[in-house]
Design brief:
The protein is an alpha+beta fold. It contains 18 helices and 39 strands. The protein has six domains: 100 residues, 3-Layer(aba) Sandwich (Rossmann fold), CATH 3.40.50.20; 68 residues, ATP-grasp fold, A domain (Dna Ligase, domain 1); 126 residues, 2-Layer Sandwich (D-amino Acid Aminotransferase, Chain A, domain 1), CATH 3.30.470.20; 98 residues, ATP-grasp fold, B domain (D-amino Acid Aminotransferase, Chain A, domain 1), CATH 3.30.470; 126 residues, Glycoprotein, Type 4 Pilin; 67 residues, OB fold (Dihydrolipoamide Acetyltransferase, E2P) (Beta Barrel), CATH 2.40.50. It binds adenosine-5'-diphosphate (2 copies) and magnesium ion. The site of one adenosine-5'-diphosphate has 19 residues, from strand 9, strand 13 and strand 14. It catalyses: propanoyl-CoA + hydrogencarbonate + ATP = (S)-methylmalonyl-CoA + ADP + phosphate + H(+).
């Protein structure tokens, strides 16, 4: 076994690998860029080596520097994590040439699977079912149109070197095919430096289901069941689960065996994932193989009880897996939510800044939170905008889902925009609960973008009751006395008026044996909670039903959030309530005449000039942030009257880019 390994990555995955290495008694070396000097992975590792400037191309992608860091510190092996150099065959070659071990598959497997055209050919030869289509390079748009007509519309146009949802277009007719081919090719050229394009059938209403495999250098390859990753935006995963609610034992076995056959065809060792697209009738087709650890691997670990990183390290050290297919047992259900620094209310635009508050739920046997951040840390524009991966386990899907909903409600992040409200809304969605998933779920359920979760009578009751409880505790006699912690026992029986949206009810609250009794709207409810002033999450029960709400204090009242629903609730004594009707209403500033920068970023293009008439949907400017180019479009028809920013400008959020007449 190795005595010391280097982790050529950052963020949550670097931290996750360090944890396993520590448990195995292996010393760890972290590498870091200027932007990561205070990062968690640097602090967790036994040693750390600075490798360059913030941009990944000047640090985490510098193979030579990373290999030198390993040699200098006496590390014997390198774990690449995912992304960065993890699927780079040249890097593996250099690692091995330096006499070090690469903790991952062989160069041959990485290069064979790194190319979508080549891997599809290999898959066909290995007897794996592939998406019907044309497996070969396409010369020009005329040929693309001919091939698409043969396959039959709709078709998917893909870059052979593609990844991360880039270089991919759907075409429903000849015109879209021509356009899609040309734009996919130019995106492929600029993103991957490889413009080979192929075309396959677009599977309508598909699910993305993938098989985790594990192989050793003795020739054993096992499959560890499937993960369903159908909840995607921009062809990128957001929520994953294992097992899939759609897969029966026979399909699992058939997919697993094909994944193993393909892996054996390239003498696969280490952890890998074979991705399939599955249609309504459970026909499955090979998409691609990812020759690395996958972001969503925790859900597999939670239902198999295996540590995939430990297995990767053992296999890299030459040890056999020491297991057979019969030893792989799937127990219970696991769900993962990817928590991203992105604004769900603004088309998932990335957001950056400082995490002024970062309070994840407590980790237990059924709650796991993989992260690389801490309160006060900075989410920078240089890297992937993922903040954490929250995974929950339960005996059943319902139990795992309930645990996820509570954990998301407890997860308290402030300082930057994040997608927890969106995740909470999806978890509360009846269609998600039924397991009726497809890769179009987000597009179908939120056609006009995300505007918040769905308010239900239960949520409304919970918010009113919790707000009344919180306010009664805060204003109790105890909280006025220095050194005393306010408690529900000190609450005095009195009347309150509770406002939520445009309606208000009157309520009375008084201490009871289990906590408090609330009489509201002619009904009586029993509340129990250990909430004390200062807590940012309210957890408790109402008539025995668990309730978790995030809590922010406002000038007047409380902001309460659960399942993507966020409301201001004010609790007032009746005499104050009467006076409030005399207060003037606040008028919001009209910003509709401006194009505001939706996130901090760099202006890379301004597509209009002063005096231009623009149509709704027309591209106005392009702002780059967090590895992504974001096209800002006109919300309605109008005339540009002034341009306030120029190419190359770094803008803050809500800074004016241009003005309309
Ligand atoms: P897929 O390629 O099918 O989307 P994953 O969902 O596992 O598979 O995504 C892996 C992607 O995560 C990488 O291709 C990369 O873009 C991104 N990534 C790279 N490095 C990191 C990192 N340190 N933390 C989080 N994500 C990363
Ligand atoms: P990447 O390398 O970006 O991960 P994939 O080929 O794995 O590319 O595809 C990513 C996603 O795009 C899939 O999960 C699925 O949602 C969608 N997709 C890819 N190919 C097809 C297809 N033929 N039909 C329908 N959807 C597809
Ligand atoms: Mg993929």
């Amino acid at each position: 076994m190795f005595e010391k390994i280097l982790i050529a990555n950052r963020g949550e995955i670097a931290c996750r690998i360090i944890k396993t290495a520590k448990r195995m008694g292996i010393r760890t070396v972290a590498v870091y860029s200027d932007a990561d000097a205070d990062a968690l992975h640097v602090e967790m590792a036994d040693e750390h080596v600075h490798i360059g400037e913030a941009p990944a191309a000047q640090s985490y992608l510098l193979a030579d520097k990373i290999i030198k860091a390993a040699k200098d510190t006496g590390a014997q092996a390198i774990h690449p994590g995912f992304g960065f150099l993890s699927e780079n065959a040249k890097f593996v070659e250099a690692v091995e040439a330096a006499g070090l071990v690469f903790i991952g598959p062989t160069i041959h497997a990485i290069s064979a699977m790194g190319d979508k055209i080549e891997s599809k050919r290999l898959a066909q030869k290995a007897g794996v079912s592939t998406v019907p289509g044309y497996i070969g390079e396409i010369a020009d748009d005329d040929e693309a149109v001919k091939i698409a007509a043969d396959i039959g519309y709709p078709v998917m146009i893909k870059a052979s070197a593609g990844g991360g949802g880039k270089g991919m277009r759907i075409a429903w007719d000849e015109e879209e095919c021509r356009e899609g081919f040309l734009s996919a090719r130019s995106e492929a050229r600029s993103s991957f430096g490889d413009e080979r394009i192929f075309i396959e059938k677009y599977i309508v209403e598909p699910r993305h289901i993938e098989i985790q495999i594990l192989g050793d250098s003795q020739g054993t390859v096992l499959y560890l069941g499937e993960r369903e990753c159908s909840i995607q935006r921009r062809h990128q995963k957001v929520i994953e689960e294992a097992p899939s609610p759609f897969i029966d034992e026979a399909t699992r076995k058939a997919m697993g065996e094909q994944a193993v056959a393909l892996s054996k065809a390239v003498d696969y060792r280490s952890a890998g994932t074979v991705e399939f697209i599955v249609d309504k009738d459970r026909n499955f087709y090979f998409l691609e193989m990812n020759t690395r650890l996958q972001v969503e691997h925790p859900v597999t670990e939670m239902i198999t009880g295996l540590d995939l990183v430990e297995q990767m390290i053992k296999v890299a050290a030459g040890q056999p897996l020491g297991m057979t297919q019969e030893d792989i047992r799937l127990t219970g259900w696991a769900i993962e939510s990817r928590i991203y620094a992105e604004d769900p209310y603004r088309n998932f635009l990335p957001s950056i800044g400082r995490l002024t508050r970062y309070r994840p739920p407590a980790e237990t046997g059924s709650v796991r939170n993989d992260t690389g951040v801490f309160e006060g840390a900075e989410i920078s524009m240089y890297y992937d905008p993922m903040i954490a991966k929250l995974a929950t386990w339960g005996e059943t899907r319902e139990a795992a889902l309930a645990e996820m909903r509570t954990s998301l409600d407890q997860f308290y992040i402030r300082g930057i925009a994040h997608n927890i409200p969106f995740l909470g809304a999806v978890m509360a969605h009846p269609r998600f609960a039924e397991g009726r998933l497809s890769t179009n779920f987000i597009a179908e359920e939120y056609p006009d973008g995300f505007e918040g979760g769905v308010m239900t009578p239960e949520i409304e009751l919970a918010m009113r009751a919790a707000a009344c409880f919180i306010h009664a505790v805060e204003t109790s006699r105890d909280s006025q006395m220095p050194g005393r912690i306010a408690s529900v026992a000190a609450v005095q029986s009195r009347e309150w008026i509770i406002h939520l949206d445009d309606s208000h009810v009157s309520a009375r609250i008084y201490p009871s044996q289990g906590g408090a009794t609330l009489v509201m709207g002619g009904k009586s409810f029993e509340l129990a909670s250990d909430w004390t002033p200062g807590k940012t999450v309210f957890s408790g029960t109402i008539d025995g039903r668990p309730v978790t709400l995030e809590l922010d204090r406002l000038n007047m009242g409380y902001q309460l959030s659960t399942s993507g629903v966020s409301k201001t609730v004010t609790v007032l004594p009746p005499h104050v309530d009467r006076l409030m009707t005399h207060m003037p209403e606040k008028v919001e500033a009209d910003t509709s005449k401006f194009l505001l920068c939706p996130m901090p970023g760099l202006v890379v293009a301004i597509n209009v000039t002063e005096g231009d008439e623009v149509k709704a949907g027309q591209a106005l400017a392009v702002v780059e942030a967090m590895k992504m180019e974001n096209i800002l479009r006109a919300e309605r028809d109008g005339t540009v009257s002034a341009i306030k920013a120029g190419v190359g400008d770094s803008l803050a959020v809500d800074q004016v880019i241009l003005e309309f007449e």
